[in-house]
Amino acid sequence: MKRVGVYGGTFDPFHNAHLRLARALRDELALDEVRLIPAGRPYHRDSGPHADAEQRLAMVRLGIAGETGLTADAREVVSARNAYTVETLEALRAELGQDTELWCLIGSDSLEHLDRWHRWRELFALANLAVAIRPGFDAARLAPAVRAEWDARQVSDFSNRTPCGTIRALALTPVALSATEIRRRLAAGDDVADCVPEAVAAHIRRLGLYRPA
Ligand SMILES: Nc1ncnc2c1ncn2[C@@H]1O[C@H](COP(=O)(O)OP(=O)(O)OP(=O)(O)O)[C@@H](O)[C@H]1O
Ligand SMILES: O=C(O)c1ccc[n+]([C@@H]2O[C@H](COP(=O)([O-])O)[C@@H](O)[C@H]2O)c1
């Protein structure tokens, strides 16, 4: 049975931690494919993305070029609607069929706000959830409703794989890298070649992205 990963993000810009996570999702869960889906309109953010959706999609494409099993999916970029993950997963489920094992990857900071996501409880009927732990994560501080799912849906034996409904934390060591930090460094005129894929760094330089106006 096919196994597919879905990794959505603002990717403003796409950075090395994103790439490391996408690879870990593919490898730890032995997935056939991981689809990276830039959020066209991340309605949930306090302020809009800095780079436009096409630029963020271009950075994802450049960042994953040549990576086995990693693909960019433009559906949320071309959509005029807000980026609701439940709708994206519904569309993928309709395309891939009921038997496909689907894994939606989020960082632990996203998990902390999961109960504010559109129709969040329906996510578990559509996909499994893979969580990449960020430094400082503490499950005890999750909102009670999210904590209940976190406790109930982690299974000890993942060899018994299901199309949806379980939660699994990725084993990789947490890293502190964030797009906020990268944007801050670029705005200060610093080089970011050490924290984004080389082709993404070249793209940012070429277009002058994230520089003060
Ligand atoms: N270093 C990281 N470790 C674990 N998860 C991460 C990391 N960076 C990003 N993620 C996760 O990847 C997804 C997409 O991340 P996003 O594009 O928002 O990057 P970000 O670095 O968190 O950006 P920003 O600083 O602008 O919020 C989110 O679910 C986020 O939690
Ligand atoms: O569906 C929702 O309501 C929802 C609310 C917040 C975030 N998300 C998704 O979570 C992913 C990570 O978001 P972000 O802001 O950390 O890049 C991205 O794909 C968003 O579209 C989705």
Automatic annotation (TrEMBL):
Task: Please give one Gene Ontology molecular function term for this protein.
Answer: ATP binding
Q: What is the lineage of its organism?
A: Bacteria, Pseudomonadati, Pseudomonadota, Betaproteobacteria, Neisseriales
Q: What is this protein called?
A: Probable nicotinate-nucleotide adenylyltransferase
Check the record and name the InterPro entries matching this protein.
Cyt_trans-like, NadD/NMNAT, Rossmann-like_a/b/a_fold
Query: Which Pfam families does the protein's record reference?
Result: CTP_transf_like
User: What EC number(s) does this enzyme carry?
Assistant: 2.7.7.18
The answer to keyword Protease applying to this record is no
All residue ranges annotated as the Cytidyltransferase-like domain in the record: 6-185
